[in-house]
Amino acid sequence: MAEKFDLNEREVWDGNYAASQALRQADVDVVAAYPITPSTPIVENYGSYVANGYIDGEFIMVESEHAAMSGCIGASAAGGRVATATSSQGFALMAEVLYQASGMRLPIVLNVVNRALASPLNVSGDHSDMYLGRDSGWIQMDAFNAQEAYDLTLCAFKIGENHSVRLPVMVHQDGFTTSHTAQNTYPLTDEAAAKFVGKIVPVDDMLDFSRPVTYGAQTESDWHFEHKIKQHKAIMDSRPVIDEVYAEFEKLTGREYKRVESYNMEDADVAIVALGTTVETARIAAEELKSEGIKAGIVAIRCFRPFPFDQVREALKNVKCVSVLDRSSPAGAMGAFFNEVSAALYTTASRPLVTNFIYGLGGRDFSIEEAKRIFKEQQAHADAGHITTDIQQFSGLRGPYLGFFQTKRG
Amino acid sequence: MTEIRWHSRAGQGAVSGAKGLGDVVATTGKEVQAFALYGSAKRGAALRAYNRIDDKPILNHAKFMNPDYVLVIDPALAFTDNITVNEDEKTKYIITTHLSKEELIAGIPELEGKEERVYILDCVQISLDTIGRSMPNAPMLGALVKISGMFELDYFLENMKRVLSKFPQKIIDANMDAINRAYNEVK
Fold first, then answer.
1. Residues of A in contact with B22 (CB under 8 A)
2. Which superfamily does B2-185 belong to?
């Protein structure tokens, strides 16, 4: 029986601590981890909860992130509740095994504290690692602050372990801006959290010796396609389950989550579409622009995978101009996020103007003033009836102006 | 919204100070934010830590701020770090130094004409006398409580005790002494 951990109704936690408390409350059986900045404290704290008797679990130290996810796969296939955390290069090294986990339909929870990918080496936050995971077959949810990192980690177990889902789930938070920023956080009691998450009911667990099963079998051209599309369909079909879990969480806490979050969008003419902490900073800008007569709103993607194609269309169909903010180097293309949002908007009747900003790489600051400047630029496009700048630009980049591609389409 | 910027060296406790302050402020029902900008985080490297305090949830995640208070807990950083960056006409400075205010300002041209908004005390000496080693974060909190008028001293001390509760009683008492002395000595 685990020791009682003293919690206050209101804590001042950073995102890492918040996520680690969610792992403790979810009664995670196994964490196999190879710690990396800035996600280190998540698994380090779990290790200390185990060592100090606050959780009946197992912390497995391994020699790399590749081994960490491999250990998670073994423990999850055995039937345990399993989680770990990583960032950046650690995530990259895990990449091969991420596909194994999702292909084997193992409901592992991975806290990804987003950080830039080298080279050059950089420990600060951007979304390069998050983007790297986007085709890996995992559900990806994004927290914009420490409270959400806690809340979504609890939700992640309930979503992934649902028998109609059976998929691994990533919970993302911004490196340092969330992971190392302490803010007011309101945890559930251990009892309420445990009741919400529930006990894991494994499917095809390998420790059930009365019913032997095989994981990670080989399929060639005869069956591979069917397996992968079954997996794709499972991710698509997880949407209503995610909605149900969010609804149940709201009933319990009053904190509402949606796969697509909208702020000030009721009568917005211009919008920013973003991920992470930037969403909250931009909300202040939108609020402040009201007095200048600019109707600005924010559409934020809570659930990056499954990508909420239909809800993005719905959220943005009435605006005149949208700017999609990509926090990852597109390396020779338009931003990947821009491409996905644009694809959704292309199927709407209104087809708003869409521009792309690359910003915040390697932890570059994003201020309220900069969000305002971007909103005002979108307003200028809307007034002119076409995009008056290059379609792809850079926010907060030093040096001479840089931009790519133009259009006069109205 | 109250915004605070700490100038410190890694190891002097600015990050703990900012988080401790956040912890205490949150008990009053306010919303807080505490974070730091690390370079390559080697002991002794200059770093900046930040607090935001507001009545409503804090959505601003930018590092940029026009601080209401600048707290300098390393005496040399007052001269070598750009402590007045992004100030406004109301920014107050609390600087740890063994110099007089006149001597200090004579060495920092950016502070000239801002004498009314500059406060000094010797956090290093206070912590040496009370805690037994150079740990200037706790005294700086005492000075901030005095200059900002944010809390009654007793209320702050009570809550700080709770924040420090994982430490031995001797250390808690020493920190209380340090905060008390700083509260009375800042000028």
1. 12, 182-183
2. Pyruvate-ferredoxin oxidoreductase, PFOR, domain III (3.40.920.10)
